[in-house]
Design a protein that fits this description.
Layout lengths: L6 E12 L2 E12 L3 E5 L6 H8 L7 E6 L2 E2 L5 H8 L2 E4 L11 H12 L4 H14 L15 H13 L5 E5 L7 H18 L2 E6 L2 H7 L2 E6 L2 E6 L1 H5 L4 H8 L11
Parallel strand pairs: 3-8, 3-9, 6-7, 7-8
Antiparallel strand pairs: 1-2, 1-4, 4-5, 9-10
Helix pairs in contact: 3-4, 3-5, 6-7
């Protein structure tokens, strides 16, 4: 099923439970093409569960998941695989292959999903790494990189196929404020220079302030506030007030 729409992503009454634990209780979310959307909320509120439905890493119990006008929760495997190639995903941990160098992590994707020659793949990898100022790290293994460098290599891998959509699962977890700003500004650049639609889940207020065109607040399995970041911040709800009242202190930090 395919429907033409200005919404590149649409979740309709999305519900998901694990056993008796109901995580998503009827989530509605619209993402416009070319926008950078942030879904905020405290730990354990279902943010990661929500974003995994967009790429169908999880199946909904009920509701609808639309991506690029297609009902992704109903697609057959071949059509789903084709659509997924147009969606980059940055995992919270980065999920780099430890036994591969930075360049090999990117080449793994190109080798599997393109018909590029080895020389063409090498040029493409150097081009992508240069965007992130990491060409000199191409031969380094993840264990030889800082936390921030790993995050940027993982982001480079996520965009190596030039997707139209990028999904970010806590893109700045574990980074100090300076590194948070660096990664967040890269996300903004990808939207402004490449036209990539972004959906990021985060509890990092600094990151949200830099990247958000539109913001949503998830609590108790439902979106309770949406709009601009200022509109969400001003929403009169105890969980929203508590969220913005949390200090950005006493968290582990990693320098880029």
């Amino acid at each position: 099923m395919s429907v033409q729409t200005d919404h590149i992503i649409r979740l309709v009454n999305l519900r998901k439970s694990f056993g008796r634990y109901e995580v998503l209780k009827g989530v509605d979310l619209d993402v416009m093409r070319g926008r950078s959307v942030v879904v905020m909320g405290g730990s354990g509120t279902g943010k990661s569960v929500l974003i995994k439905h967009i790429v169908r890493l999880l199946e909904p119990d009920s509701g609808e998941v639309w991506v690029q006008g297609k009902r992704i929760d109903l697609l057959e495997k071949d059509e789903l695989d084709e659509l997924r190639l147009n969606i980059g995903y940055l995992f919270q941990s980065g999920a780099l292959f430890d036994s591969m160098t930075a360049a090999q992590n990117l080449d793994f994707i190109l080798d599997r999903h393109t018909v590029m020659s080895k020389a063409e793949r090498r040029d493409r990898i150097d081009e992508i790494l240069s965007w992130f100022d990491l060409v000199d790290k191409r031969a380094h293994f993840p264990s030889e990189l800082s936390g921030g460098q790993k995050k940027r290599i993982a982001l480079a891998r996520a965009i190596v196929l030039e997707p139209e959509i990028l999904l970010y699962d806590e893109p700045t977890t574990g980074l100090d404020p300076e590194s948070v700003r660096t990664v967040a500004e890269l996300i903004v650049s990808l939207r402004e220079e490449r036209g990539i639609t972004s959906v990021a889940i985060t509890h990092d207020i600094l990151c949200a302030e830099i990247i958000a065109d539109d913001a949503f607040f998830l609590h108790d399995g439902r979106i309770i506030a949406g709009g601009s970041l200022d509109e969400v911040r001003a929403f009169d709800h105890p969980q929203v007030r508590n969220f913005y009242g949390q200090p950005l202190l006493n968290r582990p930090t990693t320098r880029l």
